[in-house]
User: Fold this.
Amino acid sequence: MRINVSNSGLEFSRIVQGMMRLKQWDFSTKEAENFLLKAIDLGVTTFDHADIYGNYTCESLFGEVLKINPSLRNKIQIVTKTGIILPDKEKKRIHYYDTTKSHILESVDRSLNNLHTDHIDLLLIHRPDPLMDPTEIVEAFLELYKQGKVLYFGVSNFTMQQFNTLQSKFSLSLVTNQIELSPYNLDHIQNDNTYFLLEKNINPMIWSPLAGGKIFDASNEKSVKILSALKEVSSEMNVVEIDTVIYAWLLNHPMGAIPISGSGKIERLKNAVNALNIKMPRELWFKIYEAALGHDVP
Ligand code: NAP
Assistant:
């Protein structure tokens, strides 16, 4: 299933494959190619990166696949991010954010080079920067757009105000806000961001839909309670896999979420795709929501 992201003309697969853990998966280039081909067979054609993933290694590992199989490039969409600087003890560098024009331009050039591509489909500002100068970010965005290096722009982890501040200076539309949301983490429902996105007709990309695997942790009291509700819903709906139930819970929200699966196992990506046609009754949606809240709704 495809989605025209926020009606912008940018076409993504409704389920996106996240590449943050690519280094951890320890794939050979051939194995990584195989993973991509299987994802594409499942209809998952959009891949989410950031310059910093795998301590600045994941984009290059992915780029190696495009190097041996360049024909893949026009079958997929690439998202990447900029704005975070990771600490480096040897260089005595601390962890900080940089959303200056020069950093954005340099980081995109590095991403293009690492990914072995001449364009990025969607570039996101990775995290809100307390020193963000929207005018400067917009200058960088427009330069990248005019050069054809980046086709669409968005943000990640932004509040409504931060989104509005950047959008107010930008002549193009920010097409998404990539936010964390799962039954384990309701922050963006509780801070009203989901209502804001609905008002603006913006489809959010959803990171850590399974709370990075934490939702399956039997030693975590909060997870155990949520898991128990998920199991009840799974048996009531005859949906075997718990992760499929979680994806269905996200996809049944009217904001048109675009979940990013972070697993390196193709069977788990299949579980996400299997959620695409599930209609979850409102009462069962609330069963999961109330377990996530830790109490009934008032
Ligand atoms: P996730 O899908 O919530 O978590 C994936 C992790 O959960 C993997 O380690 C996976 O292990 C594990 N897992 C899945 N099913 C499991 C099960 N049944 N039992 C135990 N563990 C299980 O997503 P995520 O990786 O945290 O995030 C997804 C993507 O979002 C990332 O790749 C990245 O692209 C993006 N992201 C963005 C931001 C941002 O700030 N914008 C932040 C974080 C992530 P296996 O590989 O073994 O299945």
DSSP finds 13 helices and twelve strands in the chain. The chain has a mean pLDDT of 98. Residues 18 and 262 are 5 Å apart (CA to CA).
